[in-house]
Amino acid sequence: MFYVIGLGLSDEKDITLRGLEAIKGSTRVYLEAYTSILMIDKERLEGFYGKQVILADRDMVETQSDEILRSADTEDVSLLVVGDPFGATTHTDIILRARALRIPTRVIHNASIMNAAGACGLQLYNFGQTVSLVFFTDTWRPDSFYDRVQENVGLGMHTLLLLDIKVKEQSEENMARGRKIYEPPRYMSIPTAVEQLLSTEAVRGAGILAPTDTLAIALSRVGGGAEERIVAGTLQELLAAPPEVFGAPLHSLVLVGKRVHHLEVEYAETFALDPANWRRVATEVYGCALDG
Fold this sequence. Notes:
By secondary structure, the protein is of the alpha/beta class. Helix content is 34%, strand content 17%.
């Protein structure tokens, strides 16, 4: 059996009992280590599971899946995924490869940012399309995400933005020369995300992202752990806030949609940098009727 097991978002104790049983019964256990990161090191996982954990980087998962799937038709092999297994298309792809080899597969789910984002007080059924925001470079500034945000805005829906991480990435020069030299890990911060959003708005000009009139909520390490941080404000307020306000990575950002309910506004107000301005924008710009 080939197991794809969600680890949740915080630490080694987020594993489900079903997932833990599968790990303990597996001959080999891999940890997918590039679409997201866990907030603890591999050694803590190994200590808790009583199993050696093999780190599986992008090359292994995408080009050496045969090694991961080796003998999974006759013994149990587990691939551990931060969050939920279906949070990235990479995991769908390896499951399809396993099925093509007639290897039995089983997915064991867990919490992911897709549902933990509800910790900010916005209702999950009011979210539209989730969007990934990648690091801009001097020569590459992809803006296709803007179209998805615009569609959500048009429907009044909230938008969850997943911010880029760069783990075990090569520079263009090292890649061209075939040198296995990797850049230090980088994680997109909330100010960088807001800067990219507003610079894209300036180019595209549809008027969907106004610095002083767009409400947003920054999420850091959500999942119920001690390091969870939630900060709400206008885009301008988030951009001006000191970076340490947002906590350690990983970060995500939610753009509040115009159909926001007053209970969502009141709940998120507890995280606001400026509660009075949060209520003012919600009332005057978003048309939300608030008590008091």
